Amino acid sequence: MSVLAGIYKIPELRKRIIYTLSMLAVYRVGIFVTTPGVDRNAMSDIIQQGEMGFLGMLNLFSGGALEQLSIFALNIMPYVSASIIISLLQVMVKPLEELRKEGEAGQRKINQYTRYGTVALSIVQGMMIAQFLESLNSQAGVPVVTNPGWGFRLLTILTLTTGTAFLMWIGEQINEKGIGNGISLIIFAGIVANLPGAVGQTAQLVRTEQILPIDLMIIVFLGGLVIALIVFFERAQRRLPITYSKRIVGRNVYGGESSHLPLKVNMAGVIPPIFASSLLLFPATLSNWDVPGMRWLQAQLDPGAWPYLVIFAVLSIFFSFFYTAITVQPVEMAENLKKQSAFIPGIRPGKATAEYIDTVITRLTTVGAIYVAAVCTVPAIFQNQWRVPFYFGGTSLMIVVSVALDLAQQVDAHLITRHYEGLAASRGPRIRERNA
After folding, report:
1. Residue ranges per domain, the chain?
2. What is the pLDDT of residues 220-229, one digit of tens each?
3. DSSP for 376-421?
4. Collapsing DSSP states into helix, strand and coil, what is residue 104?
5. pTM higher than 0.85 for the full model?
6. Superfamily, domain 206-436
7. Are 407 and 180 in contact (CB under 8 A)?
8. What is the per-residue pLDDT across 297-356, written as a single tens digit (0 to 9) for each?
9. Beta strand pairing call for 258-264 and 252-254
């Protein structure tokens, strides 16, 4: 049975996919709804002039919303920034740390704080963008803002904050009723929407001989190599062997089976590059309020420049370790194994198991962090060499491929679950073989 046929035959999965596509379609339509009081054509000219700068990066992650001066111009980045802040506070603030340990109820409370933080950051960033837009003029001298002043600023703040809150709601609805991670899919959709334009720009460079055919072949080869590398590391696992102790209940013997504990090489996924990109965009927004040193820092952090790449790599490595430390708890994993009467062969249950798992996770995270930093920075060097459009950068490729893999795995999980249920009555031996 083909995958498409399987999706069609499972009503729940089909509804989830249709719902997800519908929500993403709403997001893409909203991209073309312009914020009141601005000249979209003037802003488009400015974006084209600075295509490789921080405006190009903002436009990339907003899915072209900045170029359109859309109500979604802030996109989902305030939510990402709020998530970073809340994650940091969970380590430093005891009540938040206790909330995280409360399970689902505590996570709901943390999500609520993240929403409040998103709205607050949207208001601040909306004000910064409003003032920034008032200072912009196109190459022809046409101002972006037709009627600057506090009326425009307040309306822009309200519009952009509402747009971000709506995108946050879309992401949560996809998580609940659709399939895949809603926030990641919004970023994914924004990047993918820009790819046809990037392909067109690359074709134009080839036609004008700014990129030679041999260079294009090398670019395609390197792009395929990077994608293959991403797929390999995103699917790579270290499987810790687990054995369940035998228990005698009456005349029956339970346990004694062997299994494994899968640990991904890159446990943090696409979170590190997204967090790093969000932080490196922060000086550009602060410079609009004339914060001392921010304009100089913004000039140094031009995407593709060496200082930007080095800091990006360091931040990616830091967030790989940080996010893994928050989300993966070796002590809890050891306790759960102990409760299930399971153990790792050669390792004593309890503290020794937790220390062993922690050591393995640290080694895996080290490899995963180096992989994330390399994938997100090395392609930028080649990108500058051949002047390829920004959309082919390592960060965008990693986000697109990783989110696509995660989505495919979730679809596959639905298909396998349904397949097992359908085979349960008549083909039991095959089920046991697949589970083994």
Report:
1. 31-178, 206-436
2. 888 888 889 9
3. HHHHHHHHHHHT--GGGSHHHHHHHHHHHHHHHHHHHHHHHHHHHH
4. helix
5. no
6. SecY subunit domain (1.10.3370.10)
7. yes
8. 766 677 667 888 888 899 999 999 988 988 888 988 898 888 888 888 888 888 899 999
9. unpaired
